[in-house]
Write a structure and sequence with these properties.
single chain; 471 residues; Fumarate Reductase Iron-sulfur Protein, Chain B, domain 2; FAD/NAD(P)-binding domain; five-stranded parallel sheet; globular
């Protein structure tokens, strides 16, 4: 372990953030770095807790958290990086955008602020790049087998890297013009600048991974061509079908899906010429709840929105854990993101009933308050509208951040005859093979929209399944 009494001697110290007044003027990353001395003290807080729930319960990747905390405290940074890479291909990404379920499962977190796991992970990875330790790891022997990876999000990239290092020829097909999937176009630059992705892609190119952009698998290249040309196919296309809202006025201009709004701003940041952009400048903006809604708040603020309102149909969470939500479960508590710090009106228990507009453009949301019941025997809750609670919200721009339904059921899924589960996700077996021989799937295509770390884990596991299939 690190320091036996560290958790008694040192308090949690979070990294500084750029001030609100400074950061809303640009799209650069908000969070700054702790000093090396302070980071070592944070690693010293890691306890010899016997059963590390951070590793065994909280982290979908099963990161060896106590081990690399110990290495940081002892100054063995290279060893810490090796331990981190043993389970996570992209710790510099997870260290920026993961919500850190490991920290909410930290044993110290029962009655104290938990260990700063996410930030320590980030700094280990950044140290690796600064020292030149992160270089291409080329497979010892070429197998002569070829694998097509469809989609370049975290699951696809993790699988591609693992397969390339095993000596397989890997081609990643991406429908967009740049590699990265949701990481590239769904995550605002103020949370993760895209240079972070680009330097890792350079490592992967050095390992032999080929990237083909602007290719829509199933249309630009047929499933038959893929099956003929590759020994295995892995689908990591994500859950890209957004959840819509079927209410009066839905067809008015000024109502957009959140992901289109976020992707467009990332393209502008990359220097692209975006015709007819979705702009929040000078507008009353209404967004949905959740992390995507939060990202829209920060983006709208940087574009110069007049006002931003975030509405959520669920009730306002408590400030502290409820007894029915004990440690080490993920705590259902009220959270305040950096975007919320930048200013917005948050409203809970709100149901959208419709939209009204002028001249074909949205101007008003028609809403009603709802009351939620307690959980039934199966833990499900229901809501009912509160009589007489109807109200309106001014809106010139409405951004749907209502989640995603499932992977697109296009030619790739249909022509390969892939079996789907009850929610429309691709079914796989224990080795991540689909109902079609030699066709695998992983990430949000299988689970529905989920965490980046869970996608990385599934990509790694699917790579193991493919390696076994290819012999």
């Amino acid at each position: 372990m690190a320091k036996p009494t560290g958790f008694l001697e040192y308090s949690r110290l979070d990294p500084d953030k750029r001030t609100v007044q400074e950061r809303i003027r640009d799209h650069r990353e908000i969070e700054q770095m702790l000093s090396p001395d302070n980071l070592i003290l944070q690693a010293a807080r890691c306890m010899d807790c016997g059963v590390p729930s951070c590793h065994a319960y909280g982290c979908p990747l099963f990161n060896r958290i106590p081990d690399w905390n110990d290495m940081v405290y002892a100054g063995h940074w290279k060893r810490a990086l090796d331990l981190l890479h043993a389970t996570n291909n992209f710790p510099e990404i997870a260290g920026r955008i993961c919500p850190a379920p490991c920290e909410t499962a930290c044993t110290l977190g029962i009655n104290q602020p938990p260990v700063s796991i996410r930030h320590i992970e980030l700094q280990i990875a950044e140290r690796g790049f600064d020292e030149g330790w992160i270089r291409p790891e080329i497979g010892a022997h070429a197998t002569g087998k070829r694998v097509a990876v469809i989609g370049s999000g975290p699951a696809g990239l993790a699988a591609a890297q693992q397969l390339a290092r095993a000596g397989h020829g890997v081609v990643v097909f991406e429908k967009d013009d740049r590699i990265g999937g949701l990481l590239r176009y769904g995550i605002p630059d103020f949370k993760m600048e895209k240079r972070v992705i680009d330097r890792r892609l350079e490592q992967m190119r050095g390992e032999g991974v080929r990237f083909e952009t602007g290719v829509l698998a199933g249309l630009d290249i047929s499933p038959r061509f893929l099956s003929r040309s590759f020994d295995a196919i892995l689908i990591t296309a994500g859950a890209t079908v957004p959840r819509d809202l079927d209410v009066p006025g839905r067809d008015l201009e000024g109502i957009q899906f959140a992901m289109a709004f976020l992707a467009q701003q990332n393209r502008v940041n990359a220097g692209d010429d975006v015709p007819d952009p979705i702009s929040a400048r000078g507008k009353d903006v209404v967004v949905g709840g959740g992390d995507t809604g939060s990202d829209c708040i920060g983006t709208a603020r940087r574009q110069g929105a007049k006002s931003v309102t975030q509405i959520e149909i669920l009730p306002e969470p408590p400030r502290e854990r409820h007894p029915e939500n004990p440690w080490p479960e993920w705590p259902n508590i009220l959270r305040r993101s950096t975007s919320h710090e930048e200013g917005c009106d948050r409203q809970w228990g709100v149901l959208t009933k419709g939209f009204r507009g002028e001249g074909g453009r949205v101007r008003v949301l028609e809403c009603v308050r709802v009351d939620w019941s307690g959980p039934d025997a199966a833990g499900r809750r229901s809501y009912q509208e509160i009589p007489g609670s109807a109200f309106e919200i001014k809106a010139d721009l409405v951004l749907f951040a209502t989640g995603f339904v499932h992977v697109e059921h296009g030619p790739l899924v249909q022509d390969l005859g892939l079996r789907l589960d009850g929610r429309g996700n691709i079914e796989v077996d224990s080795g991540f093979m689909t109902s079609a021989e030699g066709v695998f799937a992983a990430g949000d295509s299988v689970t529905g929209a989920s965490l980046v770390v869970r996608a990385i884990w599934q990509g790694r596991q699917a790579a193991e399944g493919i390696k076994g299939f290819l012999g």
